[in-house]
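Researcher: Quick one. three chains, 302 residues in total.
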Amino acid sequence: MVPPARVRAIRTSLLRWYDAHEQPFPWRSARDPYAAMVAAVAAQQTQMARVLEIYDRWMAAFPTLPVLAQAGRDEVLRVWGRAGYPQRAAYLHQAAQHCVEEHGGALPPDPEALLALPGVGPFTAAIIRTFGFGEDAAAVDTNVVRVIGRVLFGDLQPARETPAAAVGAMAERLLPPGEAARWNPALMDYGALVCLPRPRCQACVLASVCAARPRFQAGETAEPVRAQGAWEGSDRQWRGRIMAHLRQRGPTTVSALMRHLRPGQERARVRGLLDGLQRDGLAWVRGARCGLGDPPAEDGPG
DNA sequence: AATGCGGGGGA
DNA sequence: TCCCCAGCATT
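Model:
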């Protein structure tokens, strides 16, 4: 059990730090659930410098949920561009259509209804509730896991060492009632700027209350949570190449696609990846032709 | 619990 | 080079 005085000390120190280091991202003050969802989905496994660009481009093209719902999948994927994990764009598109059909064209405030949306998990739902609806919800991302795991449990690499359930329970306990819209970004920014994988304990405003006393050794760093496969020659690289070409080029033929990609001996493999993209709702294949997003409507009977 | 899923920037 | 990134869905 964490003593209430310690909870208060952590809250006070972190919020004071946040007052001086807040990053004024537009979706934090917009009070727009849709804007919060776009930002949260764009932020999945993506650094904030890139999220800002994606967000501006996306909101300019699809300023509201109904506008997004009406757009074509190909346009959605082109606006997403090279932001990575294009399935996220398809999820946003599907979520918008779901909200139009089931929730009157707006995002629902209930956690259960939010979690039912494609691409919306615990973190994104908490961001939507916090920034979009002004409700209290603990947003636990990779940064928050690190800060809580270190400050409350004294673990250098909490993603590996601290049980997720323990981190989650502590995140709920720490959340200052009525202040999630400040508290969540404070925790996340602190993990991104101070309590990094290689911690900067010298600059830490929580050192006096941190469970890692007096501090981690200089140069200590968390080990990777998951091993990283090679990028060169990977399925992901090929999928990215296919998508890049389909975005740039209009509807085309599979032969022309292959001619451009030059898969060599890997032609069958790349052809299989194109089918995978179709299953993911990112590309279509009809006979010899293919393209971005959904297939063009059939104009004959049948 | 483990894996698939982009792309870019930084050490 | 390798690691990191405001995760989620699927198996």
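Residues 4-21 of chain A form the longest helix (18 residues).
Researcher: Thanks, that's what I needed.
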